[in-house]
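for the writeup, i need someone to sanity check this before i put it in the appendix. the sequnce is what the collaborator sent (i think, or maybe the updated version? ugh). structure was predicted straight from it, no edits. if anything looks off just tell me and ill rerun, i have time this weekend
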Amino acid sequence: MTDPFDALAGLIEEHALVPLLWHLGLMQWEDLAYGWALFAVYGAAQVGLMLAICLPLEWWRPVERWADRSPVLTDIGYTLLARVGLLPLVAFVGFYTTQTALNGWLADHGYVPPTLERLLPALLAHPALTFLLYALILDAADYWRHRLSHRWRWWWSLHALHHAQRQMTFWSDDRNHLLDDLIAALWFGVIGLAIGVPPLQFPLLVLLLRLLESISHANTRVSFGWLGERLLISPRFHRAHHALVSAGSASCNYGAVFPCWDMIFGSADFSGDYRPTGDPTADAWLASGNYAAQQWAGLRRLAKSIASAGNTAPATTTETARSFLLEGVDHARKNDTILADQRSRRARRGLPGVDAAKGAAERRGAVPDL
């Protein structure tokens, strides 16, 4: 029986990628075109799986409902670029070519390329356990990458883009500055090369870990229970990391998939609060601008951080977070006043069902243009 992913990747390679490479004079990359297409197809399937899992959760038990969801649209663009476009290209083509060159150099100089199976031969009979160990090691490395991105001022200036989103959903996982993504890709790639992750497994590991990360960003009141939350990071656990008071260096819950690293290194917070998210110090462009505006705002913030004194990222105080929340409440009240005025004018014109329509729309999380 033909693998549908394999068949679709073959069609994309034959009818789209090879003609494009020939037209651009880049046929030396033809051998890698199929691999990129295959993992792009896997990425598209992953987006479909995210929708199937996370959308019902967010509709069922949302933490917040928003009348204007336009900031989420930008996050959707980030996800499609990362899962279907840029991520497969970097994860497969970059990792494959680098590992091939490194292994060739090691072999030429009489060294055996490193793998977990050579270090622990018993793993050769247990590929599933080996895959899990690769995932644990990569996740541990990502814990420290993430923690350092909150610690160092220049790095936080880039990572703040991820935390600036005040309407956090499962789409927000890929909301990152390009430079921050580049650092993460290099970090992941170096660790993957050091432990000898097979080139065909590396993109699958990245896709699996990112799928679990997307679920942890979902706007839903879901936890995995006392034991479950200590085995796998839940939306409730990770929301504490995105809370207003967690922006900057005084944060918690840095883990991406497994909470054990937070537990081991003393940064775990298992409190049951579903806190408001965002970065109180982020300007409007960083929080709700379009893709280009957010990237540019991140670069401006990076330049300021390099020019400023001190290497440690600032911590968000409770007073700053409270002030930010009060401003948000005031803005929401102004919106409510405008909506009430619109309903009143509609009612005076004798249009039926206005209040009922608004109530139903608010329960869905969107208010129609009355």
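The radius of gyration is 23 Å. Residues 70-108 form the longest helix (39 residues).
thx in advance!!
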